[in-house]
Amino acid sequence: MTRGRFTPLIAAGLVLLCSAASSHAETVRIAVGAASVASLPTWVAHEGGYFTREGTPAELIYIRGGPQTLSALVSGEVPFAQVYSGPIVAARLTGADTTIVAGLVNQPFFSIVTVAGIEKPEDLRGKKIGITTFGSATDLVLRLALKKWGIKDNEVSILQMRGVPEILPALASGSLHAGVLSPPTNMMAVRAGFKELAYLPRAGISFQHTSVATTHKYIEKNRPTVIKVLRAYTVAIERIKADKAFAMKVLAKYMGVSDPTVLDYSYGVGLPLFKSPPYPTIEGVQVVLDFLAEKEPKAKQFQPKDFVDNSLLQEVEKSMAKKS
Q1: 198 with 279, same domain?
Q2: For residues 41-54, average pLDDT
Q3: Which of 31, 50, 304, 320 has a beta carbon 3.0–4.6 Å from 45's, enabling a disulfide?
């Protein structure tokens, strides 16, 4: 599994322990598979002290790539993983015990950005397109977009660049003709003169994106802990919506960005995608199932509900309603 410090776009040292944790509080390890605006609920839950307030101080561990992040969950190295739904569903199909317990972002939070001369989707044929890694959310969303546009995978060259921040300099050097970028890198690319061919939340491309996953086994043994973690996420999202200044401060810290225009853009595009309570979408999981079924017939035997456990968030919602 590939690990390391964030690229210059990301503040160093995402592996953080809540300093305010009491000696008796249980520290939960959360593997974070994306260093993007989609991670804002996790970061705000940490920086706002909401995990600690629930008695579950968190250790956030950055693991590059969705499949690698999910592997840490399946192996038991961590009890929670913040990752897009593809690896979660794929692992379940092979017999893993994984389940989605929250949906932080239920749409693909990406743009496809291109160099000059590519004006419409069909112009992508024969071109080199950068993603992070095979099996990642950038990989899935690109293939879904190509399918929607009537372009076969073998009509383009899909290249792994390891991380979203690495795609932009590859565009600038001419190594790529297009790339799948998330905020704020997509905005930086446009400001640098590249073209946003499609902002995918508005292009009819949809699937269950950033999710919080755990295992049924962990839920059975630690249900109260899971509920506390999900309550922290729910309150964090409410804080994001109510306190723009704080949310932007957190974004600046974790993304290593100080430009107020970039921060304002990042907050603005993320805000409508964060829902409270953060229920995942059955429709989004179905899209992933349908995509996987093209190569794995076993996927047709499953229903989206087989990959989601909403009962914990329902408990969170009821408990919060009683307190309000």
Answers
A1: no
A2: 98
A3: 50
Last residue of a domain, which of 202, 226, 245?
202
Structure tokens at 11: 């503040």
Tally of domains in the chain = 2
pLDDT > 90 fraction of the chain, expressed in percent and rounded: 79
Average pLDDT, the chain: 90
Domain match, 229 and 264 both: yes
pLDDT digits 0-9 by tens, 219-237: 999 999 999 999 999 999 9
**Which residues form the domain of 128?**
111-202
**How far is CA 31 from each of CA 21, 22, 110, 212, rounded to the nearest angstrom?**
19, 22, 21, 10
- Note the pLDDT of residue 148: 93
CATH label of the domain that carries residue 225: 3.40.190.10
Q: Is the pTM of this model over 0.70?
A: yes
Q: What is the dihedral of CA 216, 217, 219, 224, to 10 degrees?
A: 170
> First CA to last CA across the chain, in angstroms?
43
